[in-house]
Amino acid sequence: MFNVEFQAVVLAAGKGSRMHEITAAKPKCLLPVGNKPLVWYPLVKLQEIGFKDVILIVYDNQKSEIQSTLDKLNLSIKIDYVSIKNEDQGTADSLRLIHDKIKTDVLVLSCDLISDVNLGGVLNLFRMHNASLCALLFNPSASEQVSVPGPKMKYKPERDLIGIDSQTNRLVFLASASDFETSMTLPKALIKKHTQITMYSNLIDSHVYVLKKWIIKYLQNEPSISTIKGELLPHIIRKQLLKPKEKLDYNTSIVNTRDESGIFGYVSESPLDLLIRETSSFNDHYGDLKSSYHGDVVRCFAYIAEPSVFGIRVNTLPAYHSVNFKIIDKWEKLTKDKELNRIDSSADIQSTQVDDKCIVWNSCKLSEKTSFKNSILGFNCEVEKFSRVFNSIIMNDVVIKEKVALENCIVCNNTVIESGCQIKNCLIGSQHVVAKDAVHTNELLTLNDRLMELE
């Protein structure tokens, strides 16, 4: 439906630095959420609205594992894998890398987005105003008290300061709240131009952006811009206050000269577009006699999803923990009524105590006289007799020996938990062996040297 008009790009070359305890030995985009890897959710979202192709940006050393995993999921969308070797590259650097592949306007998504939002809304807003960029924002979800596995600590959510013109949905200000101590000021020119600005500090940036093709070209000549959210978006938003020099030759683009920033050398608006705006009775705002959009050729917009929309970025440990225990209830809305295969047919389930809040991946073996409540067990896990697993996320290739009790834990890949262990509220890193009869509560059990390297 949209694949000719827009190209889709999914950014999956992230370290997961805010949850490195569980991404130290596994690509962030392959973390299990429900019965699928994390990146499956944005890919299916693109499929649903008609995209046939997507560019997936990954780290070079993770490409084969990611490709092998996605090949098994029977996705209809064609994936063009683009790998980057430098792990210090930012998200804008990734877009710069694929500039030669970009032929149309671009829909950019992060691999950690899980949402039931209709992306058609943000695309339509972009179309309606011939926008330069459009960002999707979520309303905050109701606060919830959750016990995140691992040492007790306070997780401080990131907050953005977002200014939106309430008349027009123009996005006029974007910055991290951490950039300001006690107060902030807005340019006088901005307040004079947009008289009805609403400042938000609780909206959630989904990292879904629709960008004009010219922005990708502009990035090529702005090598200092490394990230989309922190640098590119604020930069473009600020340029809305500038005006281009008008050419007198109306046979060429009305906007085709460089200002001091160079941005207007990339924006293109034809004389016909300008003539239509000037002769049309349409205006996007009221309260002055200025033309529509105040004559701006750089136009940024915000699409705020309805409060009923579920949307989360799985980029922190609390978010990862939370979404896994919501996935069954949200599944139908997330996937447009696709059937949730809670228990894979290849799993060997001898236990009679697996409740309806459990998800069991393929090739698992759950012995008799075991008990499972509200838990996820990943690929090729084995649980021996007299063990119980409650409210836990067990990743792939995990072995749980006899008489083990796990409660509210996250257990990463290739871990072995020896018999008799009592473990509660713990995070167990990959390839860790928990000694026989060990008792642990609110601990991080992992290979310390690996975590030190990441820090």
TrEMBL record:
<comment type="function">
    <text>Acts as a component of the translation initiation factor 2B (eIF2B) complex, which catalyzes the exchange of GDP for GTP on the eukaryotic initiation factor 2 (eIF2) complex gamma subunit. Its guanine nucleotide exchange factor activity is repressed when bound to eIF2 complex phosphorylated on the alpha subunit, thereby limiting the amount of methionyl-initiator methionine tRNA available to the ribosome and consequently global translation is repressed.</text>
</comment>
<feature type="domain" description="Nucleotidyl transferase">
    <location>
        <begin position="8"/>
        <end position="136"/>
    </location>
</feature>
<dbReference type="Pfam" id="PF25087">
    <property type="entry name" value="GMPPB_C"/>
</dbReference>
<comment type="similarity">
    <text>Belongs to the eIF-2B gamma/epsilon subunits family.</text>
</comment>
<dbReference type="GO" id="GO:0005851">
    <property type="term" value="C:eukaryotic translation initiation factor 2B complex"/>
</dbReference>
<dbReference type="InterPro" id="IPR051960">
    <property type="entry name" value="eIF2B_gamma"/>
</dbReference>
<keyword id="KW-0396">Initiation factor</keyword>
<dbReference type="Pfam" id="PF00483">
    <property type="entry name" value="NTP_transferase"/>
</dbReference>
<dbReference type="GO" id="GO:0005829">
    <property type="term" value="C:cytosol"/>
</dbReference>
<dbReference type="InterPro" id="IPR029044">
    <property type="entry name" value="Nucleotide-diphossugar_trans"/>
</dbReference>
<dbReference type="InterPro" id="IPR005835">
    <property type="entry name" value="NTP_transferase_dom"/>
</dbReference>
<dbReference type="GO" id="GO:0005085">
    <property type="term" value="F:guanyl-nucleotide exchange factor activity"/>
</dbReference>
<keyword id="KW-0648">Protein biosynthesis</keyword>
<dbReference type="GO" id="GO:0003743">
    <property type="term" value="F:translation initiation factor activity"/>
</dbReference>
<protein>
    <recommendedName>
        <fullName>Translation initiation factor eIF2B subunit gamma</fullName>
    </recommendedName>
</protein>
<feature type="domain" description="Mannose-1-phosphate guanyltransferase C-terminal">
    <location>
        <begin position="357"/>
        <end position="446"/>
    </location>
</feature>
<dbReference type="InterPro" id="IPR056729">
    <property type="entry name" value="GMPPB_C"/>
</dbReference>
<keyword id="KW-0963">Cytoplasm</keyword>
<dbReference type="GO" id="GO:0002183">
    <property type="term" value="P:cytoplasmic translational initiation"/>
</dbReference>
<comment type="subunit">
    <text>Component of the translation initiation factor 2B (eIF2B) complex which is a heterodecamer of two sets of five different subunits: alpha, beta, gamma, delta and epsilon. Subunits alpha, beta and delta comprise a regulatory subcomplex and subunits epsilon and gamma comprise a catalytic subcomplex. Within the complex, the hexameric regulatory complex resides at the center, with the two heterodimeric catalytic subcomplexes bound on opposite sides.</text>
</comment>
